[in-house]
Amino acid sequence: MKAERIRKASREKVRQRARFLSNPYGFSKEVLEEKKAGQLNCSKEVVEAHLKNTHSDQAKHMQIDGHERIDPVPMTTIAFTERETIFNELDQRLDQIQHQAQMEYLRRCTSHAQTAETVVEIIEGGLA
Questions:
Q1: How far apart are CA 20 and CA 23, in angstroms?
Q2: Disulfide: which of 24, 26, 46, 97 matches 42 by Cβ 3.0-4.6 Å?
């Protein structure tokens, strides 16, 4: 009897540990949270009105004045229509840089190929 109880407790511990490791926050919430009981005795409209009054911001459209410790931020001087040209210029410049990098790579490969040919000629000349 005692051995069975110990074995059961051990299996339960292993199962609980696996549940905890798979989802620690959910497991903790399930263990520590109070169980919900009872029935809701009000209409859906009353609940929605309560949630709206509790969680909505009635003053969200009011203009907020600056605070004395916060420096004012100047308005932007760049129009949104000008930003597209900046992106186009940036794209063109990136294309130029990529082209230059490709040309430099080809130049280096060519010089390495010439160097390799020279080494082969020297080796062949030394062997002849």
A1: 5
A2: 46
The closest alpha carbon to 82, from 90, 72, 94, belongs to 90
DSSP string computed for 16-85: HHHHHHH-HHHHHHHHHSPPP-S---S-HHHHHHHHHHHH--TTTTSPPPPPTTSPPPPPP-S-GGGHHH
On the question of pLDDT at 128 being above 60, the answer is no
Question: Are 17 and 24 within 8 A, CB to CB?
Answer: no
Give residue for tokens 């540990």: 17
Q: State pLDDT tens for residues 46-74.
A: 999 998 888 888 777 777 777 778 887 78
pTM of structure: 0.30
